[in-house]
Write a structure and sequence with these properties.
- It is built from 10 helices and 14 strands.
- The protein is an alpha/beta fold.
- The chain has a 6-stranded mixed sheet with strand order 1-2-3-4-5-6, with helices on one face.
- α5 crosses α10 (about 240-255) and α6 runs antiparallel to α7.
- The protein is globular, with a radius of gyration of 18 Å.
- Bound molecules: zinc ion (ZN) and fe (iii) ion.
- The site of fe (iii) ion has 6 residues, from α2.
Length: about 260
């Protein structure tokens, strides 16, 4: 049993993902940053794309839904909480729901904060999660709609996944994220090594995504609200986890 994942560039810095159950051939796109690119990639692979699985309502994630409904008659699986913004939804989802792609099962995780109804898809058996704009390699999404309490709780759910969970996020932002991460956590040796690796990869045009939860747990300042070194650096030794997260998010916004 396998989940095939095809990763490709869309727009200026989005990643598109086609996923497929290797046994049944059932195929979905995670979000729809660019309908024509997604359709062309599916055609090239000879994968019969039938489903859209959205993570949240932003245009670079759901903006291609209508075009793919028209061209391929895809069904739309998406967060119920963002139904109004997304438009047509065939299968509305909420936290804890199980969705099937052929024989592959994904659990829906509420990761609200970037947008209120943002969800992630966790394929436990395949050890893979699609997290949209909630968690990035060395970063997290901007807090457009949620509160620090909500966003930190969402990221805690992702941080609680097994260390070897492969994290597919929706943008290539890692080099800029690394520069910021070093500014708030300058003595973190794992982070320094990670940042060096990111620069090497970007120099040759290679993607830095996917990452893993284990790697992010050690290096991503948005997952390290309980780290004593980071708390000391921010002068927030006794603050709540959400307050530490909020301060890191605030600093990134003006970095
Ligand atoms: Zn977004
Ligand atoms: Fe996005």
């Amino acid at each position: 049993m396998a989940l095939d994942v095809l990763q490709f560039n869309c727009l200026s810095d989005n990643y598109g993902y086609l996923i497929r159950c290797s046994q049944t051939g059932a195929c979905a796109t995670i979000d729809t940053p660019d309908a024509s690119v997604i359709e062309a990639e599916a055609k090239k692979m000879k994968w019969g794309l039938k489903e859209v699985w959205n993570t949240h309502h932003h245009w670079d994630h759901a903006g291609g839904n209508d075009a793919l409904r028209k061209s391929l008659n895809v069904s739309i699986t998406a967060p119920e909480a963002e139904a109004e913004a997304i438009g047509h939804i065939d299968r509305p989802l909420k936290h804890g729901d199980i969705v099937q792609l052929g024989y592959q099962r994904a659990t829906v995780i509420d990761v609200g904060g970037h947008t209120l109804g943002h969800i992630a898809y966790w394929f436990e058996d395949a050890n893979v999660a699609f997290v949209g704009d909630s968690l990035f390699a060395l970063g997290c999404g901007r807090m457009f709609e949620g509160t620090p309490e909500q966003f930190q709780a969402s990221l805690a759910r992702l941080r609680g996944l097994p260390d070897d969970t492969v994290i597919y996020c929706a943008h290539e932002y890692t080099a800029a994220n690394a520069a910021f991460a070093l500014s708030v956590d300058p003595d973190n040796e794992a982070l320094k090594a990670y940042a060096l690796d990111v620069h090497k990869k970007r120099e040759r045009g290679a993607p830095t995504v996917p990452t893993t939860i284990g790697k992010e747990r050690l290096t991503n300042p948005f997952l390290r609200w309980d780290d004593e070194g980071l708390r000391a650096q921010l002068d927030l030794k006794d603050a709540s986890d959400a307050d530490v997260f909020a301060e890191v998010r605030r600093r990134k916004d003006v970095f």
